[in-house]
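Troubleshooting entry. The earlier prediction with uridine-5'-diphosphate-glucuronic acid gave an output that would not parse, so I re-checked the input for stray whitespace and re-submitted. Clean input:
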Amino acid sequence: MRITVIGCGYLGTTHAAGMAELGYEVLGVEVSPTQLATLTEGRAPFYEPDLEPLLRRHVDSGALRFTDSYEEAGAFGDVHFLCVGTPQQAQGLGADLSQVEGSVRSLAPHLRDGALVVGKSTVPVGTAERLAEILAEDAPSARLGWNPEFLREGYAVQDTLHPDRLVFGVSEPSVESTLREVYAKVLAEDTPVVVTDFATAELVKVSANAFLATKISFINAVAEVCELTGADVVDLADALGHDNRIGRRFLNAGVGFGGGCLPKDVRAFQHRAGELGADHLMSLLRDVDAINTHRRESVVSQAREMLGTIAGSRVAVLGAAFKPDSDDIRDSPALWVAGQLHLAGAQVSVHDPQAMDNARKRFPTLGYVDSPVTACEDADLVLHLTEWPQFREIDPQELASVVRRRQVLDGRNVLDPARWRAAGWTFRGMGRR
Ligand code: UGA
């Protein structure tokens, strides 16, 4: 069986390398010339632990190749995974489906008889039905399946090769059997599989991300109550987490969620719920998004309180990526806060172990430095906004000698308040005592 992966961004590159690792011959389709050149050399166009060695090994062996030609892809593949992006629309909250529809229209005329097209991109419910109609026009013998992806950045390879579960949205039994064949090695590890219809498969994915976002916004809303009452949200989350029905994960209060997935998926689901007249879900998700934005604003207003006046002050921002082990700065809370403080007149110095190049390109007016200590030189306030392990290891005693004022705000609630206070720092967390 030969496999193509259409769209080699985050999801597609990892999926292509993962499929090669499972033993298939794989052809990745990427239309961006720079991205294509990077991939062809066996290099990853972004930072993701464990991905590059995998990519290089399979490119070197010839099992994994890349092209920009849909014609070549159609002739090559038995199974075609759609991994193109579904960003937020430029005007509005809904998902922009132009890449998904465009790639199916480009591929369809070249498909071989009986080929299987499998959607992995995150889409609004109802999209697969529409793509099935497009395929029926241009490639009547082609089949469609929906197999959403749940990988997390930072764990993308592990999540691809050893997922928590597989979901197969199918409209005929032969699609299920082809997907079972593709994933035979993964299923042999007793990975749970849910076989369902297109609409449910599409909804599983957006519901999973909406639920994770809701969990984070819930604890962040409770963090606000903690701030008003002198309670401590970290102790509270630990205690909640001991209840197996709730669990401790995704209950870390702080500056909130960002990235290329949770924020836009919450908004797209909110938009789709509105279109369908599911008003309760729409308003729940609107609040989840509003709470999240409010936490970012709260960091800015706490910074203002700590600084007195923002204009003319010097602020060190530790972190630029939307989360650790990633160089992804899409909708990053850290850079949102840094940008607001810069606009209000602060001199902002940012350090991140991996995301500096991306941040510099996107926000060229912020200051960037090569180490966390340099970022903190003469700072009036240190903001810890992405929880890289190396920031946790900073010695507050040593850092005290380089700053102008010993003030720190931990926007991720992972620094040890007692240690920082013992070194003479004014320490604030998010929803902490
Ligand atoms: C998310 C989902 O977790 C994946 O399952 C999904 O496949 C992926 O989106 C996607 O749709 O492609 P990811 O964007 O890599 O994965 O990031 P998460 O680990 O979910 O973190 C999202 C954001 O939430 C980060 O900014 C993180 O710092 C924040 N977060 C997470 C919190 O603020 N608190 C928490 O307790 C957990």
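This one parsed fine. The CA atoms of residues 254 and 412 lie 5 Å apart.
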